[in-house]
Structure to design on (1042 residues):
């Protein structure tokens, strides 16, 4: 996981603010001690109060602004993500990231304070009253020590319970998600009791963990309050014997709790910020694909493509293994084979989205890796299995940022009939919230998109007729035929009609490619 | 109140947790006040006897405070967790009488579940601290009023500002900020799905960068809004601290009682604010959880639809001119007639979006037709008890859920009390070959897509209903294997079968095939 950008600088700012706050706390305690021992309000007290309010405000503002910047950075990072679960990433982008606030604006500042303020307070106490300073110095380390001991103990315990806890905790989500299925089998009502039982089991298990987990909080509170008692009572006796100045005594009483306060605050906020931290980690762990650059391609005509011993491995899994294949300029090749056999990986390799683990791809004799991916892709027309509809008009969706003749492309893709049926024709808004298109219409929009790229020399089609009925398939096939003319093409085909558009059929099975006899 | 199903026991637990918390806070407050009194009194060098009580009190309060804090945290969590268990059951039960379409959809479900969880925050981080702060505030103000009316009034004023006015302003600020950032959020939600789903297409068409730039504008707008909200709420933080310190100083100046009592009042006041100041941040959270609580409330108060009570018997199902139209959309189904006498096998084919799944929903009673009639043995389907309909119609739907448990438990849903032999037989028919004890993960994510599909199918085989509905049951398996599995399943089915598919070859031997057309797709 890469670190949060700008965190180091932010820590620096927080440290400066923390130091100033520590000074203000010391001056304020001194001023209050003077006030309570009959010395009245001093200018330094007034200044310290003003400074503390100001510093609290500045700290809040700096923290909030830093959180806003971090969140914006993470959102931008996620928007470039190459993730498999767009729904989850979208939730993370819009709402999830905000959970990071608890960590960024709550926990981080108190963490810095808890490193600075206790030290400053101790230094002041040593100059004021040695005995009290020693008591606090002795008790202060007990807090982290006990926190670690309890933490270690709970960790062993929670590790055992974690699975149980997450299963019990996730049960409600699981049954609500599966309620439709439960109803299909008439089991929905019977599950109500289980929901209750699982929730109760979850409570019991959680309480067992919390009883131990909260022990560290107990130690923290006890040490903090007992130290105040331990400091105050002896001072009382010394005052009684006339062995101490009353101003110093009040100062010590005011400063003693301040030594523990930041630690208590950090402890309390840690719990609440755990979820936020987890979200931030999750956002930082989402893979973002790099978009590479290379030599621009001079584009002309249909390319000849040669694959030389191309292998692609995802971890242990070999998606393609030593594939050798030659596609002549202008040739149309169909790829067939069961799902998961590597057909889509092969298209991804040709598009440059996946770099071969070994072997190479030659385009008119030039290694694909040496070409500029942008101009190489501009030379290809790709129609994915399920073309995405982007928010915007039909026209925008076909043009995709270029200025082609949209109408000609739509007609060639047999999509103009569909457009005629839309309320605003080419200006109809589609996408997530726009007019719905059926699978077949969407497929033909994808073809129109590809046809609009008149300069493309290579066509890559990924099962354009999967999930279509016979009538729509015929329309899509007609459009596809128009797209293939004069171009090199690789078609992933499930159905015979699609494969029939090709001159050669290659069978992909378990990552290996072999020629199949045309029947 | 009892929309929320708060039982007397919950109430007692909540009050107890609140009292323990208030006790802990009062002990802390008294500790500081007594210690301050002790020191200033000792400085006057009175006889030791007059200090003994205070000395004992300081030591006792220190212990009591720590112990009570621990007890309070446990009590608070326990009350919330127990109540949440009951609330989950209530929410679940209130979902039962509604049609499936009412509560399906991944986003809706996730939101509902997190809404219910947000109620936990509403209690633990907002209501309980506010209640405790109010109680401690009232007790300490009363005490201060008795000792020194002037100090009491100053304290009441300070607490009023910090505990009521500032949180109120915070609620306002947060609400306005949420309203103002809503359009940017909606924009971002839409763009992010597109950017991530269509990433490769955008790159392939060379428009990824420009699309990302547009989305970044929305992100920056959101960040600018966040920054201005941070600036405003930091003003509240500063104001809160100022009120705390000024109250303490003012009490010290105006109390008009002896020095030890003045010190006790001033330091006590300082301590109460430690409890009251966090309410401003809690107010911010309150705005967020209130929306969640409102949605849960709406669900709990919603009147359940009327349900039939007749007991269904297997027999003759008929659809007469059935149409389904969702508001604002083209009809999902229009004028469908379907006759399903016992034993008949019927295939439903058509492109996606033609209403095949909707039609299955109608047969299962989960989708209500907006026109036409559905009859079972001559009586309208909605006269039957929907909870008993699965004894007649059931099967494997496209959106079937796989539960986070073992293969065995997932199968037994279809037939509680089935023996392992029966389970294994169903698995064999569906070509599913994982062990019964295998955990399948959340929604089957630890088994392959093909295995998951066959598990869903095995469940339908085990249920063996008189009318078996199958929605694209072998989609995603490779064609030869899929056909083999399907023919085994069909051979095992003894009653009526309704098979939805887009492959005509799968319904070759069927008694009838219903073709649903996609009007807009026919040239």
């Amino acid at each position: 996981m890469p670190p949060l950008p700008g965190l180091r600088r932010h820590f620096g700012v927080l440290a400066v603010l923390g130091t100033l706050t520590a000074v203000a706390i010391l001056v304020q305690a001194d001023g209050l001690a003077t006030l309570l021992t009959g010395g009245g309000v001093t200018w330094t007290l007034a200044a310290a109060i003003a400074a503390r309010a100001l510093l609290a405000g500045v700290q809040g503002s700096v923290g909030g602004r830093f959180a806003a910047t971090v969140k914006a950075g993470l959102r931008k990072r996620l928007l470039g993500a190459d993730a498999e679960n767009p729904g989850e990433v979208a939730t993370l982008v819009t709402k999830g990231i905000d959970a990071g606030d608890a960590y960024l604006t709550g926990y981080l500042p108190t963490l810095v304070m808890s490193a600075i303020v206790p030290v400053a307070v101790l230094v002041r106490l040593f100059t004021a009253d040695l005995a009290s300073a020693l008591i606090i110095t002795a008790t202060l380390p007990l807090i982290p020590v006990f926190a670690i001991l309890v933490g270690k103990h709970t960790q062993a315990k929670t590790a055992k319970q974690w699975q149980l806890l997450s299963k019990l905790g996730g049960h409600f989500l699981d049954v609500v998600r599966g309620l439709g299925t439960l109803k299909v089998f008439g089991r929905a009502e019977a599950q109500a009791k289980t929901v209750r039982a699982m929730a109760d089991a979850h409570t019991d298990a959680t309480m067992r963990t919390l009883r131990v987990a909260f022990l560290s909080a107990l130690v923290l509170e006890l040490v903090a309050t007992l130290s105040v008692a331990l400091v105050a009572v002896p001072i009382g006796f010394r005052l009684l014997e006339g062995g101490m100045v009353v101003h110093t005594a009040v100062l010590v009483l005011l400063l003693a709790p301040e030594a523990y306060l930041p630690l208590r605050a950090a402890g309390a906020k840690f719990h609440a910020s755990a979820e936020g931290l987890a979200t931030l980690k999750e956002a930082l762990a989402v893979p973002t694909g790099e978009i590479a650059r290379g030599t621009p391609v001079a584009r002309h005509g249909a390319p000849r493509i040669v694959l030389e011993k191309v292998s692609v491995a995802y971890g242990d899994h070999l998606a393609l293994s030593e594939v050798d294949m030659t596609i002549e300029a202008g040739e149309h090749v169909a790829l067939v084979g069961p799902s998961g056999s590597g057909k889509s990986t092969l298209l991804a390799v040709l598009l440059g989205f996946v770099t071969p683990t070994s072997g190479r791809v030659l385009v008119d004799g030039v290694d694909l890796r040496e070409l500029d991916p942008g101009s190489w892709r501009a030379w290809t027309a790709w129609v994915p299995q399920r073309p995405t509809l982007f928010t915007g008009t039909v026209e925008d969706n076909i043009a995709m940022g270029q200025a082609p003749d949209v109408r000609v492309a739509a007609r060639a893709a047999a999509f103009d009939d569909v457009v005629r049926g839309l309320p605003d024709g080419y200006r109809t808004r589609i996408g997530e919230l726009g007019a719905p298109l059926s699978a077949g219409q969407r497929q033909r929009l994808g073809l129109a998109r590809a046809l609009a790229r008149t300069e493309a020399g290579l066509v890559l089609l990924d099962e354009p007729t999967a999930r279509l009925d016979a009538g729509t398939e015929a329309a899509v096939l007609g459009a596809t035929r128009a797209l293939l003319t004069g171009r090199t093409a690789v078609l992933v085909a499930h159905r015979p009609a699609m494969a029939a558009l090709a001159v050669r059929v290659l069978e992909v099975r378990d990552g290996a490619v072999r020629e199949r006899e045309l029947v | 109140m009892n929309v929320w199903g708060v039982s007397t026991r919950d109430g007692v637990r909540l009050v107890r947790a609140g009292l323990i918390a208030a006790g802990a806070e009062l002990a802390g407050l008294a500790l500081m006040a007594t210690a301050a009194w002790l020191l200033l009194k000792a400085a006057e060098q009175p006889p030791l006897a007059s200090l003994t009580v205070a000395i004992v009190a300081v030591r006792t309060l220190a212990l009591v405070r720590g112990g009570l804090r621990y007890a309070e945290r446990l009590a608070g969590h326990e009350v919330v967790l127990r109540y949440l268990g009951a609330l989950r059951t209530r929410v679940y039960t209130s979902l039962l009488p509604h049609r499936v379409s009412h509560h399906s959809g991944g986003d809706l479900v996730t939101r509902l579940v997190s809404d219910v969880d947000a109620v936990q925050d509403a209690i633990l981080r907002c209501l309980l601290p506010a209640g405790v702060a109010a109680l401690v505030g009232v007790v300490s103000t009363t005490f201060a009023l008795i000792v020194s009316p002037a100090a009491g009034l100053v304290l009441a004023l300070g607490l009023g500002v910090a505990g009521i006015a500032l949180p109120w302003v915070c609620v306002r600020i947060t609400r306005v900020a949420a309203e103002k950032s809503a359009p940017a959020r909606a924009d971002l939600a839409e763009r992010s799905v597109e950017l991530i789903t269509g990433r490769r297409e955008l790159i392939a068409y060379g428009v990824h960068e420009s699309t990302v730039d547009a989305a970044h504008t929305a992100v920056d707008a959101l960040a600018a809004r966040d920054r201005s909200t941070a600036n405003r709420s930091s003003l509240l933080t500063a104001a809160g601290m100022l009120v705390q310190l000024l109250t303490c100083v003012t009490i010290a100046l105006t109390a008009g009682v002896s020095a030890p009592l003045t010190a006790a009042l001033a330091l006590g006041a300082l301590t109460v604010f430690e409890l009251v100041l966090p309410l401003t941040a809690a107010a911010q959270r309150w705005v967020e959880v209130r929306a969640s609580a409102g949605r849960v409330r709406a669900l709990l108060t919603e009147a359940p639809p009327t349900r039939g009570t007749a007991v269904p018997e297997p027999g003759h199902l008929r659809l007469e001119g059935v149409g389904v139209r969702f508001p604002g959309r083209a009809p999902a189904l229009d004028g469908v007639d379907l006759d399903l006498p016992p034993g008949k096998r019927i295939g439903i084919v058509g492109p996606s979006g033609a209403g095949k799944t909707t039609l299955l929903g109608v047969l299962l009673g989960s989708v209500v037709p907006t026109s036409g009639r559905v009859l079972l043995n001559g009586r309208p389907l909605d006269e039957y008890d929907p909870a008993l309909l699965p004894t007649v119609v059931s099967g494997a739907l496209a959106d079937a859920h796989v539960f986070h448990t073992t293969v065995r438990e997932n199968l037994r849903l279809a037939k509680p009390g089935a023996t392992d032999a029966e389970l294994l037989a169903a698995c064999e028919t569906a070509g599913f070959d994982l062990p019964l004890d295998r955990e399948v993960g959340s929604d089957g994510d630890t088994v392959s897509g093909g295995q998951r599909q066959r598990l869903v199918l095995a469940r339908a085989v085990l249920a063996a209903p008189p009318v078996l509905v199958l929605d694209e049951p072998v989609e995603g398996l490779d064609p030869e294997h899929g056909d083999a599995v399907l023919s085994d399943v069909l051979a095992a089915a003894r009653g009526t079968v309704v098979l939805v598919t887009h492959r005509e070859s799968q319904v070759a031997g069927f008694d009838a095939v219903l073709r649903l057309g996609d009007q807009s797709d026919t040239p």
Remarks:
- The longest strand of chain B covers residues 317-324.
- Chain B has a mean pLDDT of 88.
- Chain B has 13 helices and nine strands.
